[in-house]
Amino acid sequence: MGxxxxxxxxxxxxxxxxxxxxxxxxxxxxxxADPAPGSGASHAAxxxxxxxxxxxxxxxxxxxxxxxxxxxxxxxxAELSDESGxxxxxxxxxxxxxxxxxxxxxxxxxxxxxxxxxxxRVERLTGRECRRIEPMLAPSVRGGLLAPEDSWVDPRxxxxxxxxxxxxxxxxxxxxxxxxxxAAGDRAAGVRLADGRTLAAEHVVLATxxxxxxxxxxxxxxAGVPPGVLPPVRxxxxxxxxxxSPEPLLGHCVRGTVHGSPVYLVPRGDGELVLGATQExxxxxxxxxxxxxxxxxxxARELVPGITELEVAETIAGLRPxxxxxxxxxxxxALPGLLLAAGHHRxxxxxAPLTAETVAGLVAGDGPALPSCSPTRFENVEETAx
Length: 386
Description:
Elements: E1 5-10, H1 14-25, E2 30-33, H2 41-44, E3 48-49, H3 60-84, E4 95-99, H4 102-117, E5 123-126, H5 127-133, E6 143-147, E7 151-152, H6 155-168, E8 173-174, E9 178-184, E10 187-193, E11 198-206, H7 214-217, E12 234-244, E13 253-258, E14 261-267, E15 272-276, H8 290-303, E16 311-322, E17 329-332, E18 338-342, H9 348-364
Parallel strand pairs: 1-2, 1-11, 2-8, 4-13, 11-18
Antiparallel strand pairs: 3-7, 4-6, 5-6, 9-10, 10-11, 12-15, 12-16, 13-14, 14-15, 17-18
Helix pairs in contact: 1-6, 1-9, 3-6, 3-9
């Protein structure tokens, strides 16, 4: 632990660990600081790699980022699995987006036309065709869109594989909170851990999710960053259920709109089914509530009636890190030596390969920046603590 690191990554979720792995792959000396790696948003995430089915009318730049990162996932997963010896349960069977009522079907049809205008590959399906693909869908499903290139992965397996790969490369993962940024002159110089140890580094990469903004500092985030350097990041609560079935209930990731409310069901290779997720603007509240779970089950049952017969394996709430324009924060901040890899909202797992490779290139000095994701685009905007 002596000497100076090329980079210290603060945050041990999928984004932070992927970034550390890519940095180490370039021969740089790296350390990771996180009291419980993989226990935050990555632990709660469903792991959808679905830029097409999640497209919205006002977020075309985010779509392009997602498509870029999705294209990197097969090679990323193969390399990580080979190095760690662990499987990631990467599935590439596509996402089926279905509609429950006539109004939902009309909205889905408009979305399909928008996707086609953007040149995205989607297939329009009748209700009968949807049930041919997924027999457990309710007879009331009116129709759907199949995004055949959308994928999904198990984020918990990804975390385990990244930790194993980092261990194999000799990268220290310090299970301690990074309490404060240290500085030398006008640049970041490392971090001070909560136990008093100091890690000196040429670069500090802040990958702490919802805690990466000014509001997160008062909730145990990284202190010592000069005012105005951290851009706005807000926590968006998501409640999720994990259900278990002796036999797989679904073969595709199924997304639906029921009376205007979105719901998704993501199957795992071991029979688990992830049901989510609420979107709640409740600051750093991570309570699982009866109302939130009821809404999920109510809407999911309309699409897949058999879901109520499954065993409840887990209920959990996570905090997505949102930004004012819903684009992530990837790159250099106004403080030399401090970089951000945060603000990914619903797309942290999807955008991990792109984020990791971008940050590694910036630290090494041989890679391009992502101007649309620059952390300095919100200059002179200060967010108060929630």
